[in-house]
Amino acid sequence: MFERQFIDSLDFANNNRELRGEIAMTEMPRLQDKLVVPDVGFEHGHKEGINYTLRGFRDRNGQPMLKVALDGLCQLRCQRCLQGLIYPIKLVSQLRLVENWDESSIDEEDEVDSILVDHHLDVLALFEEEILLNLPFAPRHPVGVCRPVKEGYITEEIDQIEKNPFSVLSGLRYK
Ligand SMILES: [Zn+2]
Fold first, then answer.
1. In what order do the strands lie in the sheet with 64-77?
2. How many whole angstroms from 36 Cα to the centroid of ligand 1?
3. CA-CA distance, 159 to 137, in Å (whole number)?
4. Cα 74 to ligand 1 centroid, rounded to whole Å
5. Cα 66 to middle of ligand 1, angstroms
6. Tens place of pLDDT for every residue, the chain, 175 residues?
7. What is the rounded distance in angstroms from the CA atom of residue 89 to the CA atom of residue 166?
8. Are strands 64-77 and 49-58 parallel, antiparallel or unpaired?
9. 174: CA distance to ligand 1 center in Å?
10. Ligand 1 center to 100 CA (angstroms)
């Protein structure tokens, strides 16, 4: 079980600290409605879970930064057949730490996102946010791979999805 960790983000960057480990998808509550029931299990011996690396540093301009690297597998729901779809998560993002949002506009041309300095940053929530931002809105198996499901079931599920398309993207960040 992942032990919920908090860091002082500015201190973390200033001292080039690093955290590594592994988390289960089931430990990220905001992702659960995107995922197929976790105990469905994986075929072909895949293991669900995410390896993470969180590194703090200062960039060339002396700006405090966090680098998040996440690598693993999850099981999303195919929006065509509603069955499980193994989806690799591989993402690296760099986040500039700013004291307030005015600072974040200093350097618009690069593609670095900003987050506010947080002396009690919830590491798991940060990873969860990064994953949410990078999941496809409507994941689908490649054409021809979907397994058939009874039509009534599909219709009902699609209605639900349309009623509540994107309730989760809010929170922490970002500009
Ligand atoms: Zn499918």
1. 18-23, 49-58, 64-77, 84-98, 113-116
2. 12
3. 16
4. 15
5. 36
6. 557 889 999 999 999 999 999 988 888 888 888 887 654 455 555 566 899 999 999 999 899 999 999 999 888 989 888 888 888 999 999 999 999 887 666 555 667 889 999 999 999 999 999 999 999 989 999 888 886 655 544 444 455 555 554 543 433 344 3
7. 20
8. antiparallel
9. 32
10. 43
